[in-house]
Amino acid sequence: MNNIQILGIPFDFGQEHIGVRLPYSYLKDRHFINRLRPSCNIIDHQELPLPFKLKEKNEMKNSLIKNHELCSLANRDISDFIKSLDLKESFLLNIGGDHGFGLGSIHGLLHHHKDMIVVWADAHGDVNTPESSLSHNFHGMPLSFLLGLARDKHFNWITHGLIPKDLILFGTRDLDESEKFIIQKLGIQHFSAKEINRFGHKSLLESAIQKIDPYGTRPIHLSLDVDVFDPEDMTCTGTKVKEGPFREEIFGMGTFLGETGRLKSMDIAEFNPLFGTEEEGERSSELIISFLESVLGALLMKKDKPTRDYLKRHDSKSELQI
Ligand SMILES: [Mn+2]
Fold it and tell me: Cα(76) to centroid of ligand 1, in Å?
């Protein structure tokens, strides 16, 4: 894997604040692409043109989802665009956008990687259905659509999704009662911030992925909501929740996934540079860029090297020689 493809996704229909449209250009102004470039080729797709209809925002007509038409159409466009890409030998980095775009992103990526595992790093569950949601904001619902729990006639372009056992929630600490019920009923593997800080990301993720993919061959997607970070580390986001995982645990999770050599794509969601002071904006963007550098650094170091699991499977003696 030598190419990194970058796509800006200015999707802000899933919540109330306009600043979540901005990260692609905000991070670009801070030269994030140059910082990723040394080790690979960059293909920059720029921003996907999405509608910009402020007047229609936050309305709820004949639906339990605010901006339901925009949420549906924009996600369909995101999915179609990602489907149309040639992702062989490429890593795809999607810069959102509120987390509502996770639906289109993962729907499109599943076209390329049918057996993809998804790690959803987030303070929240994002698994509410339109009926169970208290806020009716779409950014709390994308997983319920991907898991086939939500039905809405406006979203009938959805043709496939995830099975619950292929999903891992990482860093949760603010789940609605309805979400707790759904997560438990579907048996979704989930690790709270407390558990991560107590046991460490590595042992938790290693055994979670082992359960899903014992041979260690399947592709992995990381959908990172920046609110997974503790608010002390990440000020510029809309739904902060205290007592997040230690910063080292989140960075460790990213590099752990990179080191598998099987991380194929990533979403960055919910960064809002308009929240907080200018200095806080700079600090938050630096955190995100450093995270990307370390994950992609780990992934690219790993390129072309067979994984330990791969060797183990093909030659039981070779493990001794590693
Ligand atoms: Mn989220």
Answer: 19
**Cβ pair 146, 162 in contact under 8 A:** yes
The three-point CA angle 251-255-260 to 5° equals 155
Distance, C-alpha 47 to centroid of its chain? 18
Percent of the chain past pLDDT 90, that is, above it, reads 84
| 190 sits in which H/E element | strand 189-192
Residue 268 Cα to ligand 1 middle (Å): 10
CB of 32 closer than 8 Å to CB of 119:
no
CA of 157 to the centre of ligand 1 (A): 22
Tell whether omega for the bond before 14 is within 30 degrees of 0, i.e. cis.
no
In this predicted model, what pLDDT tens digit does every residue of 132-176 receive, in sequence order? 999 999 999 999 999 999 988 899 999 999 999 999 999 999 999
SS3 171: strand
Which amino acid type is present at position 263?
Answer: L
Distance 137 CA to ligand 1 centre (A): 11
**Residue 254, SS3?**
helix
R_g of the chain computed on alpha carbons: 19
Structure tokens at 200: 């460490």
Domains along the chain?
A: 3-304 (3.40.800.10)
Q: What is the pTM of this model?
A: 0.92
Q: What is the pLDDT of residue 57?
A: 55
Q: Which amino acid is at 271?
A: F
Compute CA distances 240 → 90, 132, 183, 196, 249, whole Å.
32, 21, 21, 18, 18
- CB atoms < 10 A from the CB of 87, how many? 19
Q: Which of 244, 319, 320, 247 shows the shortest CA–CA distance to 290? A: 247
